[in-house]
């Protein structure tokens, strides 16, 4: 009898231990997983470092512009300060679960202006401020006056110079789908002064039926101006789809001497309720 009781006790103890182990393992598996990477060789835990960016602002004729650059000087975000809160939220979502740390730039506006006047773009100058200096040159650029009311032949040359100001600035894009990455790459090839469509960009990506997906990629663009989504219009050449505002899109296209159809300009004016025309030199 004592032997039977002893065996029953051992069986009960084994069952209880198994149930406890199963319950514990289940709880561990249900715990939230931190952003960790495990090495197969040593099983050591390596935390993915946050993305540290530096915040700059600069005045422009169409509002104060905000630029976030990483430690190497690549632009992670470019927008206007009245759109900054939403733009930063979208940037954080795009990089999730990686954390983004935003620091104020150490250089003052006065120091940056002095560097710009000196034309110092060497390695000794602040590489992170390079994008801001190029933006200022872009917005302050003036085309030569047109001769005889016609289009001067030097306009194309000036457009090339203006294009080079922003095209040479490195950018950093968040993780995304292969189609979105292809759309961004095709977008950066659109020259200053040109206007393209979502369908044309889709064809460049070898996906002619993906114009809507290309449109979504434009909405996910975090680096306005450097990825020039303001140069993209609808299939009917309609001026649509620019988060910072259609009036800014029109200003940028006029600044770049792009050909805007008059009827589309009138349509935007009727929606905005204000005149978007700008005097030309």
UniProtKB/TrEMBL annotation:
Start and end residues of each stretch annotated as Disordered: 106-126
Pfam families the UniProt entry points to: DNA_binding_1
InterPro entries found in the cross-reference section: MethylDNA_cys_MeTrfase_AS (IPR001497), MethylDNA_cys_MeTrfase_DNA-bd (IPR014048), MethylDNA_cys_MeTrfase_DNAb (IPR036217), WH-like_DNA-bd_sf (IPR036388)
PROSITE patterns in UniProt: MGMT
Catalytic activity: a 4-O-methyl-thymidine in DNA + L-cysteinyl-[protein] = a thymidine in DNA + S-methyl-L-cysteinyl-[protein]; a 6-O-methyl-2'-deoxyguanosine in DNA + L-cysteinyl-[protein] = S-methyl-L-cysteinyl-[protein] + a 2'-deoxyguanosine in DNA
Domain (Methylated-DNA-[protein]-cysteine S-methyltransferase DNA binding): residue spans on this chain: 180-257
GO biological process: DNA repair; methylation
Similarity comment: Belongs to the MGMT family.
CDD domains: ATase
Keywords recorded for this protein, A-Z: DNA damage, DNA repair, Methyltransferase, Transferase
Keyword rRNA-binding: no
Acidic residues bias locations: 111-124
Protein name: Methylated-DNA--protein-cysteine methyltransferase
Protein species of origin: Trypanosoma cruzi Dm28c
One Gene Ontology molecular-function label: methylated-DNA-[protein]-cysteine S-methyltransferase activity
